[in-house]
Task: inverse folding
């Protein structure tokens, strides 16, 4: 099979990434000190994203609360920044909950949405007055049991699902239907000594604003039923899944998919890929969901909550790795092997559809890459399949051993969600470079000695 023609997928411009790319001594020094690969974290863009989201929400509803979904990145620096910015967090495990508490968050600034809730997690959540989002009847029972043992009421929201998008039910394994919750309501109200039902929660897969708007409208009706039967709902949480753009050119994005339709890359499909180019802006997306609904919130005295992960992390991270070898492989390809595992940049499904940036180790000028050269980037596992990208990368100059490759915008789900340390390679360190002159290791770091 002939190689796929190279089409660029250029990253949007991120000023701090540009300045690192133009100053090779800096990333080179960090890699020498902390090893390859290395995750670079910047909390300034994260803080700015919080401001922008809050501003957009303020234009649409009277009361809102943002909860940053920690699952998108394990670094503590973002949890601390969330706490300093006055927002809350969404946690999925006891470790995340403990990180939130250690960062100064308590009470309803913590939402617990974890898929599996251990008794330890439930107990700690009740002790901290956090909101537990229950998914099904058995979880009601577990929460009630722990509340009894602690003699302390648990704060509860229920995850609902079964909503439609353009007439089709959105498939999901999470949550219960509004009807099922109506059926369970008596049980919850009878146990109100142990659980206080404060909110309704949903998180939809995919990135449809209209589906979220429809789900929200259905949820208002559910709130009315619950409140008319003695409940007292004070918030609706619309989850996350807000858009961000990684790429600067829609034309490049379209050209990429055109080529991919002609000659499909294994495992890379439009339906499973994140839309790395997004024409929808965050304010536009929220407007589509919420326009005209202010009075619905007001009449019911409801707060709007949301829990984005990826979009709050936009432009807040990058991963760097050293090039180990550059050699000819079969099919006329040039195999560029890097000191990183594919799992350390791969998203939850598909692959990172943003071109890496080559940072040559020396400033000796290099002749441009031959027109038909085709660079294939691989990781360091001893598997033919430890690819970093299934597609050839259109580097303008040929990489050499010792160079650095920078993967832009990896903070949301790319750095940590699938990371592995097979072959005994340690996990990447996470370096906070808010001040690049005095970087510091993030507090979440798995110490290399522990492996
Ligand atoms: C329950 C829940 N809330 C929030 C999020 C965050 O979604 P995103 O990072 O797409 O904004 C997720 C992601 O899987 C989730 O499962």
Result:
């Amino acid at each position: 099979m002939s190689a796929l023609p190279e089409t660029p997928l250029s990253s949007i411009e991120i000023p701090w990434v540009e300045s690192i790319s133009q100053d090779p001594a800096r990333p080179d020094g960090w890699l020498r000190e902390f090893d390859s690969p290395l995750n670079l974290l910047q909390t300034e863009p994260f803080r700015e994203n919080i401001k922008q989201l809050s501003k957009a929400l303020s234009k649409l509803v009277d009361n809102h609360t943002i909860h940053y979904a920690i699952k998108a990145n394990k670094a503590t620096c973002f949890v601390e920044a969330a706490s300093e910015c006055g927002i809350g967090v969404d946690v999925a495990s006891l470790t995340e909950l403990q990180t939130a508490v250690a960062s100064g968050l308590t009470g309803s600034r913590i939402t617990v949405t974890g898929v599996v809730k251990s008794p330890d997690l439930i107990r700690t959540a009740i002790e901290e007055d956090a909101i537990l989002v229950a998914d099904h009847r058995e979880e009601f029972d577990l929460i009630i049991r722990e509340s009894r043992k602690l003699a302390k009421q648990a704060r509860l929201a229920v995850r609902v699902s079964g909503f439609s998008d353009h007439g089709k039910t959105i498939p999901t394994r999470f949550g219960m239907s509004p009807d099922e919750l109506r059926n369970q309501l008596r049980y919850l109200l009878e146990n109100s000594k142990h659980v206080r039902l404060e909110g309704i929660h949903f998180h939809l897969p995919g990135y449809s604003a209209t589906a979220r708007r429809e789900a929200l409208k259905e949820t208002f009706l559910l709130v009315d039923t619950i409140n008319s039967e003695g409940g007292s709902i004070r918030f609706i949480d619309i989850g996350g899944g807000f858009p961000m753009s990684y790429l600067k050119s829609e034309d490049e994005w379209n050209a990429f998919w055109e080529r991919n339709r002609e000659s499909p890359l294994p495992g890379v499909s439009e339906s499973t890929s994140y839309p790395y180019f997004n024409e929808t802006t965050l304010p536009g997306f929220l407007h589509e969901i919420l326009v005209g609904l202010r009075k619905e919130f007001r009449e019911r005295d409801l707060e709007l909550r949301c829990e984005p992960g990826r979009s709050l992390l936009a432009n807040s991270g990058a991963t760097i790795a050293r090039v180990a070898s550059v050699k000819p492989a079969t099919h006329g390809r040039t195999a560029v092997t890097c000191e990183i595992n594919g799992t350390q940049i791969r998203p939850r499904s598909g692959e990172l559809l943003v071109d890496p940036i080559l940072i040559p180790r020396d400033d000796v000028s290099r002749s441009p890459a031959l027109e038909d050269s085709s660079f294939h980037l691989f990781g360091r596992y001893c598997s033919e399949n430890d690819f970093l990208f299934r597609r050839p990368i259109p580097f303008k100059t040929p990489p050499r051993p010792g160079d650095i490759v920078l993967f832009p915008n990896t903070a949301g789900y790319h750095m940590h969600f699938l990371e592995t340390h097979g072959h005994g390679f340690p996990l990447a360190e996470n370096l906070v470079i808010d001040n690049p002159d005095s970087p510091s290791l993030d507090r979440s770091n798995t110490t290399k000695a522990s492996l």
Observations:
- The radius of gyration is 24 Å.
- The first strand starts at residue 38 and ends at 41.
